[in-house]
Amino acid sequence: MTIQYKPKGVCSQLMNVKIEEGVVREIQVLGGCSGNLQGISKLLPGMKAEDAIQRMAGIKCGYKATSCPDQLAKALRIALDEEAKRADA
């Protein structure tokens, strides 16, 4: 399942998140700190989405109340919830 997520309060503009059976398969981020987000996008595939969420949720960027990793954790949570709904249907 792939979702598009529009992050809030950060420099990145759009996140495409693909998960299958609770595992991160692909992450694409438009905008934001290119090097950092490219690194995150390469590290997460193959990781359980729950583990990625646990590691990234709550991270802040400087004075901001959130960060791209925190927003990515929110996107992964939404993707997991959508995947669970489809499995129940």
Q: What is the strand and helix layout of this fold?
A:
Layout: E1 2-5, E2 12-20, E3 23-31, H1 34-43, H2 49-56, H3 68-88
Antiparallel strand pairs: 1-2, 2-3
Helix pairs in contact: 2-3
Folded structure, characterized:
- Strands 1-2-3 form a three-stranded antiparallel β-sheet.
- With 89 residues, it is an alpha+beta fold.
- A hairpin with a 2-residue loop joins strand 2 (12-20) and strand 3.
- The protein has helices at residues 34-43, 49-56, 68-88; strands at 2-5, 12-20, 23-31.
- It contains three helices and three strands.
Class by SSE composition: alpha+beta
Strand content: 15-25%
The pLDDT mean sits at 95
Number of helices: 3
End-to-end C-alpha gap? 14 Å
Shape: globular
Protein traits:
alpha+beta, globular, 89 residues, three-stranded antiparallel sheet, 25% strand
Offer a concise description of the structure.
This protein has 89 residues and is an alpha+beta fold. It is 44% helix and 25% strand.
